[in-house]
């Protein structure tokens, strides 16, 4: 019941083009490409070669960058910050992601926090 309610009133963080009315199974391949169950490219992760910072870019199937992923160094939980477009400015922060546990061997359980949740309180 709760899952259906979530689909009826989605929280749109990035853009309307990424909202679906039904669950979508995605698979991330070793080459950082995300495909749907039919093998169609949906997203891909790219990085700029000559950079000191660990910043990656999530692109749609057409190569358009829609978010920047910045790895926070010196954190215990593998934290990333996600920004709108190619920006890495705090004013463009969409959300941050961190591993739920410092030690995760196989699967990844992640916590996602919107910028307004500065205390990272989970509901």
TrEMBL record:
UniProt-listed InterPro entries: LOR, LOR_sf, Tubby-like_C
A Pfam family this chain is assigned to: LOR
Xref: Gene3D superfamilies: LURP1-related (2.40.160.200)
Family designation: Belongs to the LOR family.
Protein name per Swiss-Prot or TrEMBL: Uncharacterized protein
Native source species: Populus alba x Populus x berolinensis
